[in-house]
Write a structure and sequence with these properties.
Blueprint lengths: L8 E3 L4 E5 L5 H8 L4 E4 L4 E5 L2 H9 L4 H11 L8 H11 L4 E5 L2 E5 L3 H7 L3 H4 L5 E3 L2 E3 L5 H10 L5 E2 L27 H11 L8 E5 L6 H12 L3 E5 L2 H14 L7 E4 L9 E5 H4 L22 E4 L7 H8 L5 E6 L9 H8 L2 E4 L2 H6 L6 E8 L3 H9 L2 H9 L4 H11 L7 E4 L3 H11 L3 E2 L5 H13 L4 E4 L14 E4 L7 H9 L11 E8 L3 H15 L4 E5 L16
Parallel strand pairs: 5-9, 10-15, 10-16, 11-13, 11-14, 12-13, 14-15, 17-22, 17-23, 18-20, 18-21, 19-20, 21-22
Antiparallel strand pairs: 1-2, 2-4, 3-4, 5-6, 6-8, 7-8
Helix pairs in contact: 2-4, 3-4, 7-13, 8-9, 20-21
Length: 572
């Protein structure tokens, strides 16, 4: 293998990878390593990736071989790979599937062709408690109720099991996708959506039926879920983030399939109807009257003979749902998300209990094909007013972040940006974390405000008016992060956010990525207080955009007066 000093990668023995951003081969190298390497840092000139066990196992589960990974590293490395790295990488990748769960004559077995490994695993504390009787030299019986927790134990000791034990069929539910939606619009599942479902379903084979599909916001993850229902022809439980998301799923299912609307039930705080297709919120599922009490709505998971459970926005799955999911491993499980990153670092539980990543399409790939809008991303930095600097200096750590986030000078920048994006076709969303700040902005600019306290009927009315163009601006709290269907939104002004949340950055950018008529690109502005804790966290939030091939244009507040922010070329 010939190595080229002009290449953009430096691959190191500790499994870190340095990528030169300014190198002409940067984008090609990034796309080559992104399927199996995790991005850790993304400053201006050198991005740092790491080969983690989970990143390698997700790639292996999606069908990528260790040899393909090594070849990708060799193709873009400046120097020969460290001698230990190809061996270490092959060994780690080879751990996925070394142990398997099978069903033989109706009996669940843990098997491996490596007898010493089985002996070792059988002595591990997180594994041995969930093994039944020994069947032979290469297998143990496993009680079905332990299928999930055993998989959690195995990944914790570094040997993720390949689950080939199969799934119950569930109650039959005939369903056909429409060629013309009920709304009268032509409907066709896109190629990548079909590919995602094919990777998940695997033709009904035991290698399919559980896993996570990673697609950008705005790329039609709901359609992927509906297409999976049509492929399986079975009763389905869909769990999602909010009542608004439930209503969006219901609209799409009724619009895009021939299913009788009476067969689609919603189970939320407002209505509790179970039906062959039931749509529920995580909030209602995890509700309990007392902190130490039972979860009265867990009965949803065995209330009908589900053949499929869909976990929308799986990166937000609450901890109690992991617990019940461990008990229902015989049900097919589909996770949908824009990012595998979880703020609670429970990615291994998603892998074990929902399933590994089965399909992933980079955002920029879909952008280049016109499936999602082109996006220009800008970070605008501004100082704190003199009256707040002493208060900030004396504040506690968390209070520093709030003070920086609520910086009142951001209101003036919002005014500048609203003026710059006052084209009749522009649909502007102002989004933030702190209600006091959002109320101040909504009142100053006479823009409707939607928060968690806004009644659902009022929310839906405002969303409808926004879709119709009756109103062209909305101020949203965190309720705007998830599953709202505002396809015409093309400008996002982020005035504050959660501490360094990459998943939140994904959701917010996704709100404006639906493809639009004409050539106007989407614009994403993030307002950040300079030399504060907010700026530290902003760097972490940028990791998500870097992973997807976007970059921020960094601007100072003074530059807004003369800078053409709406001109193309701001995103790399």
């Amino acid at each position: 293998m010939q190595y080229n000093p002009a290449n953009p990668l430096i691959v190191q023995g500790d499994r870190t990878i340095l990528l030169e951003v300014d190198n002409p081969l940067h984008a090609e190298a990034r796309d080559a390593i992104a399927p199996f390497a995790e991005l850790e840092k993304s400053p201006e000139h050198i991005h740092t990736y790491r080969l983690t066990p989970l990143s390698l196992w997700n790639a292996a589960a999606a069908g990528m071989t260790a040899e393909a990974m090594v070849e990708a590293l060799q193709a873009f490395s400046k120097f020969p790979l460290p001698g230990n790295l190809p061996t270490d990488l092959r060994e780690l990748v080879g751990r996925y599937g070394r142990v398997k769960l099978h069903r033989v004559d109706g009996r669940l077995l843990l098997t491996t062709g490596d007898r010493p490994l089985l002996e070792e695993l059988a002595r591990q504390r997180g594994v041995r408690d969930y093994l039944g009787e020994r069947v032979d030299d290469t297998s143990f019986a496993v009680d079905d109720v332990n299928r999930g927790v055993l998989k959690q134990g195995l990944i914790a000791v570094g040997y993720p099991a390949e689950d080939l034990a199969g799934y119950v069929a569930g109650a039959a539910l005939p369903m056909t996708l429409r060629e013309t939606a009920r709304s009268g619009q032509p409907f066709k599942v896109r190629d990548y959506q079909q590919g995602a479902v094919a990777a998940f379903y695997a033709g009904g084979d035991t290698r399919g039926g559980s896993g996570v599909i990673v697609l950008p916001c705005g790329a039609g993850k709901t359609i992927v879920g509906i297409t999976a229902m049509a492929a399986l022809q079975t009763e389905t439980l869909v769990l999602t983030t909010s009542t608004t998301a439930v209503e969006q799923w219901r609209r799409e299912i009724i619009d895009k399939t021939d299913i009788d609307p009476e067969l689609v039930g919603t189970y939320t705080g407002d209505s509790k109807t179970m039906a062959p297709i039931t749509l529920a919120t995580y909030q209602i599922v995890t509700y309990r009257p007392r902190k130490d009490g039972d979860f009265p709505h867990f009965h949803l998971f065995d209330g009908r003979d589900w053949g499929l459970i869909v976990y929308d926005e799986v990166h937000l799955l609450p901890a109690p749902v992991f617990r019940i999911t461990a008990d229902i491993q015989a049900r097919r499980r589909l996770g949908l998300t824009a990012t595998l990153v979880r703020e609670d670092h429970r990615e291994e539980d998603v892998f074990s209990l929902i399933g590994p990543k089965k399909y992933d399409v980079p955002w920029r790939v879909l952008e280049s094909k016109g499936w999602i809008a082109e996006a220009q991303c800008h970070e605008v930095r501004l100082g704190l007013p003199g009256s707040l600097r002493m208060e900030y200096a004396l504040a506690e750590w968390r209070e520093k972040f709030r003070l920086a986030s609520e910086n009142p000078l951001k209101d003036d920048l919002v005014e500048v940006l609203l003026e710059r994006n006052d084209h009749p076709e522009d649909r502007v969303l102002v989004i933030g974390q702190y209600l006091k700040q959002l109320r101040r902005i909504a009142e100053r600019f006479d823009i409707p405000l939607i928060t968690g306290q806004t009644p659902n009927s009022e929310r839906e009315d405002l969303y409808d008016k926004f879709r119709q163009g009756v109103i062209r601006r909305l101020v949203l709290s965190k309720v705007g992060n998830f599953a709202i269907d505002l396809p015409d939104a093309n400008v996002m002004i982020q005035v504050s956010g959660t501490f360094g949340s990459r998943q939140e950055e994904a959701q917010r950018l996704g709100r404006i990525l639906r493809p639009k008529e004409g050539e106007r690109p989407a614009s994403f502005y993030s307002l950040v207080s300079r030399d504060t804790r907010e700026m530290d966290f902003a760097h972490h939030r940028q990791l998500f955009l870097t992973e997807q091939g976007y970059s921020y244009e960094i601007l100072d507040e003074e530059a807004l007066a003369e800078h053409g922010l709406t001109q193309p070329g701001a995103s790399a």
